[in-house]
UniProtKB/TrEMBL annotation:
Function statement: Probably catalyzes the deacetylation of acetylated carbohydrates an important step in the degradation of oligosaccharides.
Subunit record text: Homodimer.
InterPro entries the record matches: COD_ChbG_bac, Glyco_hydro/deAcase_b/a-brl, YdjC-like
Pfam family, one: YdjC
EC identifiers of the protein: 3.5.1.-
Gene3D superfamilies registered for this protein in UniProt: Glycoside hydrolase/deacetylase
Annotated residues for binding of Mg(2+): H60, H122
Identification of the protein by name: Carbohydrate deacetylase
Keyword set includes Lipid metabolism: no
Organism: Neobacillus rhizosphaerae
Enzyme class of the recorded protein, top EC level: hydrolase
CDD domains with a match to the protein in the record: YdjC_EF3048_like
Entry's family note: Belongs to the YdjC deacetylase family.
Cofactor list: Mg(2+)
Length: 253
C-alpha cells in the first residue's frame, strides 16, 4: 500500500490561502501543509493549525517572497527591504544570511507552539546547489525530513533525511482537471511513500495582487475536494498520511 502525503504549499501567505487549505483538508484529500512564517497570514495559519490537529504542518522556508523574519540579512533584500526575486537571490545572497534567515523562520514557527512535520522551500530554492547544503544542515540540526530534491537514489536527501521516495510537482498550471490528478495518483503506486504538491486557496486581495498563480488555486481546491478524486484514492488503496506517518519519524535520523 502506498502512503501518500498531499501537501498544500504556502500556508500563511494570506487568510484566503489559509482557509482554502483548511477546506481542502476538512472536505478533501489534503493531509499536510507547509507554512510561510514570514508572510502576513502566518499567525492566522498557526491558529487554524491548532484548531485542526490532524493536519500535518511543516515549514515552507522562504527567501524570495515577502520580507525576512531576521532583521540582519542584508544580502537577501533589495532597497525596499523585500527579498530579491530568484535571479537576485542567486546573484546577491550570501550563504550565511540564508542560513540565518532559514533558522529564524524555523524558530518563529516553533514560537507558535507547533511541532513541524518537515521542511521544504518556496519555489524549490533548496534544490539549488548553493542552498541545498544549508537546507541539509538545518534539517539535521532540527531532525526534520526534507522535501525530495533529486530522483538520484544516491542523493543524500534520499538516504539521510527521511524523505519520501517520490515527489510529484506536476499538479500545477492552467489545465488541471480531476482526471489529470487521478493520472498522477497512478504514478505513485509503484512507491511505498510519495508526496504530491498542491496550492489550494480561496481568492483574497493579497493573493490576487501578489501572486501570478492565483485563480488557478480555486480550481485546485475544487479538484482536491472532488468526490471522484477521493473515490480514486480509495479504489487504488492509497493511504493518505502526513510526513510524520510517511517517514516514521523518531528522535534521531
Amino acid at each position: 500500500m502506498t502512503k501518500l502525503v498531499i501537501n498544500a504549499d504556502d500556508f500563511g501567505y494570506s487568510k484566503g490561502v489559509n482557509l482554502g487549505i483548511i477546506e481542502a483538508f476538512n472536505f478533501g484529500v489534503v493531509t499536510s501543509t507547509t507554512m510561510m512564517t514570514n508572510m502576513p497570514g502566518a499567525e492566522h495559519a498557526a491558529a487554524l493549525a491548532k484548531d485542526n490537529p490532524g493536519l500535518g504542518v511543516g515549514i515552507h522556508l522562504v527567501v524570495d517572497c515577502g520580507s525576512p523574519v531576521n532583521d540582519d540579512v542584508p544580502s537577501l533584500i533589495d532597497e525596499t527591504g523585500s527579498f530579491h526575486n530568484v535571479e537576485g537571490l542567486v546573484q546577491f545572497a550570501e550563504v550565511a544570511d540564508i542560513e540565518k534567515e532559514f533558522t529564524s523562520q524555523i524558530e518563529k514557527f516553533l514560537s507558535f507552539g507547533l511541532n513541524p512535520t518537515h521542511i521544504d522551500s518556496h519555489h524549490h530554492v533548496h534544490g539549488h546547489e548553493r542552498i541545498y547544503p544549508i537546507m541539509e544542515k538545518i534539517a539535521q540540526n532540527y531532525q526534520l525530513p526534507i522535501r525530495k530534491v533529486s530522483d538520484d537514489p544516491k542523493h543524500t536527501s534520499n538516504s539521510r533525511l527521511q524523505t519520501v521516495q517520490c515527489f510529484l510537482h506536476e499538479f500545477y498550471g492552467n489545465e488541471l482537471t480531476s482526471r489529470s490528478l487521478i493520472h498522477l495518483l497512478d504514478k505513485v503506486l509503484s512507491y511505498e511513500t510519495a508526496e504530491l504538491m498542491c496550492h489550494p486557496a480561496f481568492i483574497d486581495e493579497p493573493l490576487l495582487t501578489g501572486s501570478s498563480y492565483a485563480l488557478q488555486r480555486v480550481r485546485e481546491l475544487a479538484i482536491l475536494t472532488d468526490k471522484e478524486v477521493r473515490d480514486a484514492i480509495v479504489d487504488r488503496k492509497i493511504k493518505l498520511v502526513t510526513y510524520k506517518e510517511a517517514t516514521k519519524q523518531s528522535n534521531a535520523f
